[in-house]
Each structure stands twice: as structure tokens, then as C-alpha cells.
Design a protein that fits this description.
- The protein has 286 residues and is mostly helical.
- Helices cover 73% and strands 1% of the residues.
- The chain has a two-stranded antiparallel ribbon.
- The protein starts with 6 loop residues before the first strand and ends with a helix.
Length: 286
């Protein structure tokens, strides 16, 4: 006969895990070792620079151009993935079709695929002599080695975040809601915008945030298709690794990293506030 170990709090309620104090202590120690201390080291490293030196590094024209490309492409890719990721998730949840399980499995491929392999595959596919890139050459459209190539790579690696975030919500969403709206005279657009979208908005914002965060920090799958042309298709992680670290300029690398960290934090904080507002507005907050 096996006995289960239980922990009790002062109120007499059974808890599977240790008490609040011990659990919180473990949580804070783990969070500090994994997240807080490494991030603090980035800020501490920049203290070796004066404010004038720090500003000169982070506001250099070449660095500013990488900010615009990295954050702009990440935002655009996340926005595109929200639209088409929702369509993918909807198709997988609401319809049955041949090869559905294969499509469902392929969505996770960017998670498992090494980023270098993804970058080489995308550059070969979208190059001027590639299968897809060659079709666009007569129209004067060039994808590989341009900012458009960066966008394509970020869409590729970001779409699973949106699909896998929205899919469980759609599975829990009762079709009776749509039927009730239709019976009350709502058109399809009204049903989507007034019934479904408010429920899906928190999940869509979460998927957007995850896709954006992955896009900002993506390196391996982008450098091959971007071409890394200064002031044109050079991303910020490349500036940190190639231009700064390989020249043993650790202070300069951490200065640029601090700017990326602050921008990303502000963006994710804004998205979290929007999530909280949306959940409160729809009455789905816990």
C-alpha cells in the first residue's frame, strides 16, 4: 500500500506542493538564476561606458537602420501571422479534409527545424534562381537579400506561435454561439466581429506577442536570406554578434543589446496591458 505525501498549510487545507513561502522562495531563486541575473549583467556591462559613449553607439546611423528593420519586420510579420494564423487554426479546428493531420504536424516544423537549415532553405527557395524567387523576377520583385526576405523568414518562424495559441481557444469555443447569433439575424461578419473576435482577442494578442518576441531575436534563419547589407538588410542581432563581439567590443554589444531589451520589454508590456484590458472587457479575466 503506497502512501502519498501531502503538505498542510495552517488552515488545514491539503497542498500537493510545499507551502507558499517555500514555493515562492524556489520560484524567485530559479527566476533570478535563469532570467534576472543574466539580464542584470547586460545593464551592468554598459556602466563602463559614459552616457556620451553609450549614445554614440546606440544612435549610430548603421545601428538605427538595424533597429528599424528588426523591429519593423518583426511587427509586420507578427501582424501577418495573426491574420493567417487565425485562418489556419480555424481550418484545423472547424473542418475535416484530407491531409489534415499532416498539415497540423507541419505547423510545428519551424519549432523543430534548426534555424540555419531554415535560413538556407528559404534563401534557396526565394533567390532569383530559386523555385519561387524565379517566378517573381519578371515582375521586378526580389525577395532574397532584401528586407522583404527578412519579413518572409520571420513569418515562417512566427506562424506556429499564433496557431498554437489560438487553436485551443477555438476548440473550447462552442459552435452554438455562432448558431445563436445567426438565429438572431446576425450576418457572418457581425457574428465574427461581435461574438467570436472578443473571445479570441486575448489569444490573438498572446500569439502576436510571442511571434514578435521571437522575430526580434531571430538570427540563424534570417542571416542567410537577408544578405546582411549595411543600411539595407542588416538586422540588429548581426550588429551585436559580427560587428561588436567579433571585434571584442563587449561594451558596444551590450549597449545595443540594452536598447533591444528595453524596446522589447515596452512592446511586450503594452501587449500584456491590452490583453488584460480585453479580458476584463469580455469578462474572461480570472
Amino acid at each position: 500500500m503506497s502512501a502519498a505525501v501531502s503538505f498542510f498549510n495552517p488552515t488545514g487545507q491539503t497542498r500537493v506542493l510545499p507551502g507558499f513561502g517555500l514555493s515562492l522562495g524556489y520560484t524567485l531563486v530559479y527566476l533570478s538564476l535563469v532570467v534576472l541575473i543574466p539580464l542584470s549583467a547586460v545593464f551592468i556591462q554598459t556602466t563602463s561606458l559614459t552616457w556620451a559613449e553609450f549614445w554614440a553607439i546606440v544612435s549610430a546611423p548603421r545601428v538605427v537602420a538595424t533597429y528599424k528593420l528588426s523591429f519593423g519586420a518583426a511587427l509586420a510579420a507578427a501582424a501577418i501571422n495573426v491574420v493567417f494564423g487565425l485562418m489556419l487554426a480555424w481550418s484545423l479546428v472547424r473542418y475535416s479534409f484530407p491531409g489534415k493531420k499532416l498539415v497540423d504536424a507541419l505547423i510545428d516544423l519551424p519549432f523543430a527545424l534548426p534555424t540555419a537549415v531554415a535560413g538556407i532553405s528559404l534563401s534557396a527557395l526565394w533567390a532569383s534562381n530559386g523555385w519561387l524567387g524565379g517566378l517573381l523576377v519578371p515582375f521586378g520583385i526580389k525577395v532574397a537579400f532584401t528586407p522583404l526576405g527578412v519579413l518572409v523568414a520571420l513569418i515562417f518562424i512566427g506562424v506556429p506561435f499564433v496557431v498554437r495559441t489560438v487553436q485551443p481557444v477555438l476548440e473550447d469555443l462552442e459552435t452554438e454561439l455562432e448558431e445563436a447569433a445567426a438565429s438572431l439575424g446576425a450576418h457572418r461578419r457581425q457574428t465574427f466581429t461581435r461574438v467570436l473576435l472578443p473571445v479570441l482577442t486575448p489569444a490573438l494578442l498572446t500569439g502576436f506577442a510571442l511571434a514578435f518576441a521571437r522575430g526580434v531575436g531571430e538570427y540563424g534563419s534570417v542571416i542567410f536570406i537577408a544578405g546582411n547589407i549595411p543600411m539595407v538588410s542588416e538586422i540588429t542581432p548581426l550588429i551585436i554578434i559580427i560587428t561588436k563581439l567579433e571585434q571584442y567590443d563587449e561594451s558596444g554589444a551590450t549597449a545595443v543589446a540594452v536598447v533591444m531589451l528595453l524596446f522589447s520589454f515596452l512592446m511586450l508590456l503594452t501587449i500584456n496591458l491590452l490583453q488584460a484590458w480585453s479580458a476584463k472587457r469580455t469578462g474572461r479575466n480570472r
